[in-house]
């Protein structure tokens, strides 16, 4: 089968055909405002919950990117309808009796869809759905989730390699009950079980055998299940969760801006002795990357928080001599790792072993990139110690990873001669990223 070789590029991608780009350092501090696009995590949860609701949901503020495009296309193929009405998207949920008996869907490179969809498909007895993806996503961890689904009565069949995508999912007449699962590989496994739980034939209890990485993403799942009419009982330590059966109800919701994307703009100001005001944020959000505001403050930035905005002003010199545990907000480990190269002392980042299994092995990708730039890095099993030093020009691989590309772009705003290969990978979550940098006055040249 060759389906794994398909690319994640979608009609919502940008920079098609751009092989590399060159960034130029900022010569003067700036003071600007920016608005951030919708959250990938919130959009894909909303799409899936709306797609399995009994009516029409109306969502504003949704993200248009590769991850959300393929999620939408998948749900459409299964029978949901999506209609763009001015700045809202109206989603009418799938009528279970009309689900196709056999279907194949393509989910691109989206970890969210890969982990949220199998459980919910396992609640459907009459359909056998095959989930295909890019090669990158196919080889990320899935089996722990699939084994948990088997405990709950779902049929899971691998089409190529054991534990990898593509996978075929089918419900049975006896789904639900008790399940135990580890949470230390991916919080998305737990979110996926939770979202499926109300639709199983029996009430479901989930028991965690370990701590959860990035547990705040489970809070987002629980909050959004609530918004679509389902209540989850969860113990304080997340070890026990109980979900009653029920039907998702349609919701009318504004979706939150992406706080992970916001972090690159906060980091940009922090690094360049500049000021940025980021508007229309939910400063009470469960999105864990909000914690970066505090990390930047520890590194010397000045922070002003409003109820729906944050202002970050960078110091003349970023502070080092810090150890930062980023287990709870690990999508930003590469961002802080890049800033570390400019601090006044070494920075050690810990707690991020699981990001070796994200879009690429992010721990070794940052080691490789910083080493190429002449910076001293000691790689640990769960992070790095980065010692600032003289930085040299380089053409850097982006490892087909949006977060590598966005983090390393920060380097180019300080150091002359930074080029990034294959910048279109930012389309996974922020297709307009480089245009947004340009709108702040940063010089970005695209090379075909
Ligand atoms: O549930 C979510 O929306 C996410 C959970 C996290 O994944 P892991 O828990 O797999 O690390 C995070 O890295 C990802 O960007 C989004
Ligand atoms: C890990 C990430 O993505 P995914 O949703 O594919 O897991 C990420 O966006 O950093």
Automatic annotation (TrEMBL):
Keywords: Amino-acid biosynthesis, Aromatic amino acid biosynthesis, Cytoplasm, Transferase. This is 3-phosphoshikimate 1-carboxyvinyltransferase. Catalyzes the transfer of the enolpyruvyl moiety of phosphoenolpyruvate (PEP) to the 5-hydroxyl of shikimate-3-phosphate (S3P) to produce enolpyruvyl shikimate-3-phosphate and inorganic phosphate. Residues 28-437 form the Enolpyruvate transferase domain. Monomer. The active site is at 331 (proton acceptor). Its EC number is 2.5.1.19. It is found in: Cytoplasm. It comes from Mammaliicoccus vitulinus.
């Amino acid at each position: 089968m060759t389906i794994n070789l398909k690319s994640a590029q979608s009609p919502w991608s940008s920079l098609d055909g751009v092989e590399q780009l060159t960034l130029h350092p900022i010569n003067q501090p700036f003071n600007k405002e920016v608005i951030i696009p919708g959250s990938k995590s919130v959009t894909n949860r909303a799409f899936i919950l709306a797609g399995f609701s009994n009516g029409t949901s109306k969502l504003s503020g949704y993200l248009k990117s590769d991850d959300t495009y393929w999620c939408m296309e998948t749900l459409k193929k299964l029978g949901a309808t999506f209609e763009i009405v001015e700045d809202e998207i109206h989603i009418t949920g799938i009528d279970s009796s009309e689900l196709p008996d056999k279907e194949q869907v393509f989910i691109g490179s989206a970890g969210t869809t890969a982990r949220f969809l199998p459980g919910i498909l396992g609640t459907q007895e009459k359909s056998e759905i095959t989930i295909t993806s890019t090669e990158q996503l196919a080889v990320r961890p899935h089996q722990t989730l699939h084994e948990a689904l088997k405990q709950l009565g779902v049929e899971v069949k691998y089409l190529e390699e054991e534990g990898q995508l593509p996978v075929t999912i089918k419900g049975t007449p006896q789904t639900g009950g008790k399940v135990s699962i580890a949470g230390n590989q991916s919080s998305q496994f737990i979110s996926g079980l939770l979202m499926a739980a109300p639709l199983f034939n029996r009430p479901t209890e989930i028991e965690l055998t370990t701590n959860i990485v990035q547990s705040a993403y489970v809070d987002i799942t629980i909050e959004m299940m609530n918004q679509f009419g389902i209540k989850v009982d969860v113990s304080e330590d997340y070890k026990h969760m109980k979900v009653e059966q029920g039907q998702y109800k349609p919701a009318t919701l504004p979706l939150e801006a992406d706080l992970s994307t916001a972090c690159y703009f906060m980091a940009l100001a922090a690094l360049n002795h500049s000021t940025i005001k980021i508007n229309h944020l939910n400063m009470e959000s469960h999105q864990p990357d909000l914690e970066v505001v505090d990390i930047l403050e520890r590194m010397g930035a000045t922070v002003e928080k409003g109820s729906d905005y944050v202002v970050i002003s960078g110091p003349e010199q970023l502070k080092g001599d810090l150890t930062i545990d980023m287990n709870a907000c690990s999508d930003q480990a590469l961002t802080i790792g890049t800033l570390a190269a400019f601090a006044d002392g070494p920075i050690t980042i810990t707690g991020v072993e699981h990001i070796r299994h994200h879009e690429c092995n992010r721990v070794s990708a940052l080691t490789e990139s910083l080493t190429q730039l002449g910076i001293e890095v000691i790689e640990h099993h769960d992070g790095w110690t980065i010692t600032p030093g003289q930085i040299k020009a380089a053409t850097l691989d982006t490892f087909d990873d949006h977060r590598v590309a966005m983090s390393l772009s920060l380097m180019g705003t300080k150091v002359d001669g930074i080029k990034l290969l294959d910048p279109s990978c930012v389309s996974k979550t922020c297709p307009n990223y480089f245009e947004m940098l340009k709108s702040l006055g940063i010089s970005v040249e695209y090379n075909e």
